[in-house]
Amino acid sequence: MNVNFNNRDPVYLQIVRYFKEKIAIGELEPGEEIPSRRELANQMKVNPNTAQRAYKEMEEQGLIYTEKNHPSKITTDQNILGQVRNELLVEAVDVFVTSVRSINVPVEELLDLVRVKYTANDDKEA
Amino acid sequence: MIEVKAVEKKFGRKKILKGVSFTANKGEITCLIGINGVGKTTILNAIMALTPINKGEILIDGKPLDKHSFEKITFIPDAITMLPQMTIAEAMEFMKDFYTCWNQERATELLGFFRLNQSDRISSLSKGNTAKVNLLLGLALDVDYVLMDEPFSGIDMFSREEIANVFTSHLIENRGVIITTHEVGDIEHLIDKVVLLDNGLVTKEFSAEEARENEGKSVIDVMREVYHR
Amino acid sequence: MKNYLKLVNFEFNRVAKLFVVLLGITLVIQMVGVIVLSKEYLNMANEKIYEDMMTKIEFLENFGKMNFSQIVRSIWFFGPIGLCAAGVGFYIFLIWYRDWVGKNTFIYRLLMLPTTRLNIFYAKITNILILTFGLVAFQLIIMPIEMLVMKGMVPTEFRSDMGLNKIIAVMPELSIIIPRSLIELILYYGAGVLAVAILFTAILMERSFKWKGILVGLLYSAIAVVFMILPLLLQEFVFNGFFYPIELLGIEIVMGVMVLTASVWLSRFLLMKKITV
Lengths: 126, 229, 277
Hints:
The structure holds 3 protein chains of 3 kinds.
Chain A: H1 11-24, H2 37-44, H3 48-60, E1 64-65, E2 73-74, H4 78-101, H5 107-125
Antiparallel strand pairs in A: 1-2
Chain B: E1 2-11, E2 14-24, E3 29-33, H1 40-47, E4 55-60, E5 73-76, H2 88-98, H3 104-113, H4 127-139, E6 145-149, H5 157-167, E7 176-181, E8 193-198, E9 201-207, H6 208-215, H7 219-227
Parallel strand pairs in B: 3-7, 3-8, 5-6, 6-7
Antiparallel strand pairs in B: 1-2, 1-4, 8-9
Helix pairs in contact in B: 3-4
Chain C: H1 2-51, H2 56-63, H3 68-72, H4 75-97, H5 107-111, H6 118-153, H7 164-170, H8 174-177, H9 182-238, H10 245-274
């Protein structure tokens, strides 16, 4: 679990985001146990208080749940899981749109280019 | 809680501390940051009654320090505080002899954690390993507060990493920690609270995570602002 | 109390090597002295008797019998004693300063022990006493052995044996380290402890206030010394021998206890409030 944190965003939110990404790509499965706060702090090399805060945040957002005396687990709530994927996707597209808008390109041309690039990348990976 | 209240300290005619005040909470890592010579070490020494102060007051959980406090608070200076001719085992024996809060189990764990060899003589250790032994002797005490003076300075990269790992582990958890440093760099994510010192005064005391959350600033950003550099 | 004893033991272990070296030097030099001086005497006797054809009686009349006090008075014997005394005197300072010098400043550890800091003072002064008594005891043990060596080398008719008491009688300086009465013991060793306590206080002043501390320390030592000799001066010049010697001794002991108490109290204050690492 090697994360490169930036120094300007709250570390706990960066941890939350890291988890969301893992959930979205299916690396963390619904109901899967996640490390304890202490383990997480140790693996991510952050302050245990920060790890604690990240877990609290994730619990509040319903991303994880904790039953008494058990390790925390990834939620099985399909609704939330769907949201996570959606949220990340929208966020990424937002970023893309913002940067591309400055070039002032017609949307059709842009979509064609996206299609070409996206599938070309797929081929390369495959 | 450690409370440093309006502490003043003179060396000869030179006033090093001109009324330093800050607090450090249990369960948090508080980092004193300032350039060399700003009086960081002096503050730690003063907390441990290793040097007198001219004015002000220092309280540990609401009380001034006395001999019993040394079972509650410990200080890890930047040089090892054991006789160089002792082996690591002898140094641990010494600590066990005098401190009722010495936790041998944890000491053994730390030996493993740092991959140190008990029978090695302290004088024969590398800089990094000496720093680790120094840390071990302090951290194996079951104390509420740990003060560390520049735990990362002057040692190799791998030792730094190993020592940084201590801060994210149960060895530090729930304790109040004060560390000093002149470069915050690679420990930004480890610390809870920052106390910036300049010219004998605390110029800013803030939570690292709050600065990031509310202002989108890193610790270094805040330092730049404060020091106008 | 337990911590005090632990500290005494710890401090002793730190000086043990130096202690053993001093013992070794004393034993070797004194023993060599005994052998060399006995040999010299025997060589001289041989020369006079066999070469100059002196009779035994003539020789003994002219040169006298060999006795142990001749050895005691030689540099071979009191040299090592002086060396030991200098060693202990030096160590009175070293026992403190060694904790401050070098990279591994042990004073941090000592001052952070969960025990009263005065125990450090007591443990160090106890160690000076242990060193002193240890050296004296060793001297008392090896002296009979040295006498035996002399006896083995010099034939009976050429030597006159003398006991320890008689040796001290011819060499009164020895009685300082080997007192012959309880009062002497209290006097000499009491004065010794007092002197060390005063020095320790002065050292702690220097450690607390640096350059200014040296002045204050010297001043304190001077005041303590004046205080101690004041009764003697008054007796001599003001009261013209008004007090009996035993009374004067009593007064001196009271003064000594007062100065000792002041030194301990001051040292405690310095260690707790003023000392700096």
